[in-house]
Each structure stands twice: as structure tokens, then as C-alpha cells.
Design goal:
single chain, alpha/beta, 13-stranded mixed β-sheet, five-stranded parallel β-sheet
């Protein structure tokens, strides 16, 4: 009886050539264009990133330049499509809706880079402190009066005039602000925003929003101005957020960890 039972169990096993086995899964019968179109609907992190771990073909398609633009200073030959030496060039070449993957390791310099189209910027490391975007003090720019703090002119690493998302990044500013929000919806998720500690702390704020103030008028169409921050460390500066327009800080939550604070909050219409 035991021998017969074992034989029955063996007969129930699915053979390796079965249509339901991974090697012959129906989705792999789709051509590259169809698969890439499907991958484009996945959130870049973690879904699209995880698809790259399935097999060599999925890795090639999930990392295709049509789905990602890459900033990687270690690359020697930038003739490869979709690869750029710095963030500014990648932003300039990006199309609305593109995702820019910023390579981990080292520091990526950024000075008042204006983002006027919907983009997603993602750090390429496992943790946000592995990908650093730094705005150095005294960075050159075409200055405009911010009228936020006497006659101080705001300097920033990234300047947003459209709906954008930042995730898994560390953004540091030696003086001024890490992120300048002028219009659109800005989503900041699992990032680190740091203003350097120095005697001019009162001139530094990790996030500055001038949306709705008329200080930086924008001709770009927007579907609403707001900032959403989740699971983000904010360090240094006079205050976490400085607003001068129609937006105000709302729904603040803070988790006290052993060595840092994690923030969740919205900046939306009063």
C-alpha cells in the first residue's frame, strides 16, 4: 500500500515541461516590446527593480534606457544611450514621465538644477545615504530675489517647477536649501535632507516652497501645488520647511529613532 501511495504522489508532480512551469511561462512568449510596455507601468522602486532580478532577459528589459535614464560618473563611454555623467544633463535629456536612476557611490554635484517636467529621481543604492547629491556653497546661478529672508538669495540643489518624485536619495546643501519647490506636486519618500551646521544656519532650510507667492512666477501648467514627505530624515537648518505662498505645513508625524528623526508631513493649501 505504501508503494502504491508513493507512486500516486509521483504521478501528481508537474513535469518540468508543463506550461505552468517558470521556464515556459506564458508571459515569456511575449516579445520584448510588449514586456517593456508592461514593465513601464510598474513603480520603479521596488517593483521594476525586482523584475530585473528574474532572469537575464528581464534584467535587460527592466534596465532598458526607454524605462530609465542613468547618471553614472564611473562610465567611461557616454555614447551608450541613456547614460549621463551628471544630473543636469540627464534632466535636460529626459522626457516627461522618465525615471532617472542616480548611481550610488561618490557625490553628485547639483546647483540650482531646474526641473520643468514630471520626473522621478531615484538613488541607486540600497540605502539613501549611499547616493549623495550635494550643492556646494557659493554655487553660480542667475539670481532672482526670493523675498523670503530679507535680501537673501536662495541657492538650492534641485528646483522644481513640475510634479516630481524623489526617493532613496541624500541631498545636502552647504548654504541655502536642499530643495526649492516653485510649483507642482513634489513627493519626497525615504530620503535624507541635510543642511550643513554652521553660523549661518538661519539662512538654511532643507525645503523651501514659494508656490503661490508670485515670487517665482511660472508659466507651466500645474495640477495643484503641494509637497508630500514620508519616512525622510531632515537635519540642520533653521526649520524643516519654509513657505512663503499659499501652502502651509500639515499633518506632521515624527518617529524618534536612536540616532535620527524620521518625518511624515504634507505642505498643502491652507
Amino acid at each position: 500500500m505504501e508503494v502504491e501511495e508513493l507512486e500516486k504522489r509521483k504521478s501528481r508532480k508537474i513535469p518540468s515541461s508543463s506550461p505552468s512551469s517558470p521556464s515556459s511561462a506564458l508571459i515569456n512568449n511575449l516579445d520584448d516590446g510588449c514586456l517593456m510596455h508592461i514593465f513601464s507601468f510598474l513603480s520603479p522602486i521596488p517593483d521594476r527593480y525586482n523584475t530585473a532580478l528574474v532572469c537575464h532577459r528581464w534584467c535587460y528589459l527592466a534596465c532598458h534606457p526607454r524605462l530609465w535614464l542613468r547618471v553614472d560618473r564611473s562610465v567611461q563611454d557616454f555614447s551608450e544611450p541613456g547614460v549621463f555623467p551628471n544630473i543636469e544633463e540627464a534632466v535636460s535629456a529626459a522626457r516627461p514621465g522618465d525615471t532617472i536612476l542616480i548611481a550610488a557611490g561618490g557625490s553628485h554635484l547639483a546647483s540650482n538644477i531646474q526641473i520643468k517636467k514630471p520626473l522621478c529621481l531615484i538613488g541607486g543604492g540600497e540605502l539613501p545615504d549611499e547616493t549623495n547629491v550635494i550643492c556646494l556653497r557659493g554655487s553660480d546661478r542667475e539670481k532672482q530675489p526670493a523675498r523670503l529672508c530679507c535680501s537673501f538669495w536662495w541657492s538650492s540643489a534641485l528646483e522644481f517647477l513640475s510634479t516630481c518624485k524623489l526617493t532613496n536619495l541624500t541631498v545636502k546643501a552647504e548654504l541655502g536649501c536642499c530643495l526649492l519647490h516653485r510649483s507642482g506636486r513634489l513627493i519626497i519618500d525615504e530620503c535624507i535632507l541635510q543642511c550643513e551646521s554652521n553660523p549661518l544656519d538661519y539662512l538654511s532650510c532643507p525645503i523651501v516652497s514659494t508656490a503661490g507667492s508670485g515670487v517665482f512666477p511660472s508659466n507651466l501648467k500645474s495640477d495643484g501645488d503641494s509637497i508630500s514627505v514620508s519616512h525622510t530624515r531632515i537635519e540642520g537648518g533653521a526649520k524643516a520647511v519654509l513657505t512663503s505662498g499659499d501652502l502651509a505645513l500639515q499633518q506632521v508625524r515624527v518617529i524618534y529613532a536612536r540616532t535620527c528623526l524620521y518625518f511624515w508631513f504634507d505642505v498643502d493649501c491652507r
